[in-house]
Amino acid sequence: MSELRYTLLSDGSSDRALISILTWLLQTQGVVRAIQSEWADLRRLRRPPTELGARIEKSLELYPCDLLFVHRDAEALEHRARREQIRQGVSEAATRLHTVPPTVCVVPVRMQEAWFLFNEQAIRSAAGNPYGRRPLQLPRLPQIEELPDPKVVLFNLLREASGLTGRRQKKMQVSACVHRIAELTDDFSPLRTLPAFVCLEKEIAQVVRENGWTGQ
Q1: Strands 34-39 and 67-71
Q2: How do residues 126-172 score in pLDDT, each as one tens digit?
Q3: Which end of the chain is more exposed for a tag (fewer CB within 10 A), N or C?
């Protein structure tokens, strides 16, 4: 196998930003072969499944892969409980499929926007104002997972970083800016201070090792 294909099944389209993090993690764990990523877009289906097991099944049918990532924000649930929900969904899908590829749970606390709150320069650049001087009050890394709504915090930072005011600021496509932050960040190692991120990296390291994906 000259490439590694993975599919990300996520809560919503904005979570595609996680692909940058997942690819970085695979590379840092020694995957040197070409990495091909897909986001499982089930919105185009006439009747998209809503139950997690069915969503996993349909994602694997439409986006076959060597590795499946299933994302759910922890939100109000405990990290462990959300991971168990994903595992149950995988088990349900496995009863209806011949095979299920290795699966990794992606569970940020509380939501994936928290993982993009550490790179000030990327935030400024994504907001279209890379040389802006307005002070940005980024939360301290150890506190990121404690924020009640990191999405609001990140969106507000992007608006402040833009330097725009009034109607022009209100028209900002802040969701698209989050994708730009992901693309502009080439080192996610600062997130290794966060327990949820550490858990994800350990799981990826294990699946890479067990499947021998470090070679060509």
Answers
A1: unpaired
A2: 999 999 999 999 999 988 988 999 999 999 999 999 999 999 998 99
A3: C
Question: How far, in Å, CA of 201 to CA of 193, rounded?
Answer: 12
Complete DSSP assignment for 28-57:
HTT--SEEEEEE---TTSSS---SHHHHHH
Domain contains 216: no
Domain span at residue 126 reads: 113-184
Structure-token pair, residue 56 = 């996993």
Q: 144: which residues sit within 8 A by CB, 6+ positions away?
A: 114, 115, 117, 118, 150, 194
161-202 pLDDT, tens digit per residue, is 999 999 999 899 999 999 999 999 999 999 999 999 999 999
pTM above 0.90, yes or no: yes
- What residues contact residue 68 under an 8 Å CB cut-off, 6+ apart? 6, 7, 9, 56, 59, 60, 100, 101, 102, 103, 104
pLDDT tens, residue by residue, 79-104: 889 999 999 999 999 999 988 999 99
Residue 122 sits in the same domain as residue 198 = no
Domain check: are 86 and 9 in the same one?
A: yes
Residues 71 and 97 in one domain: yes
Residues 59 and 119 in one domain: no
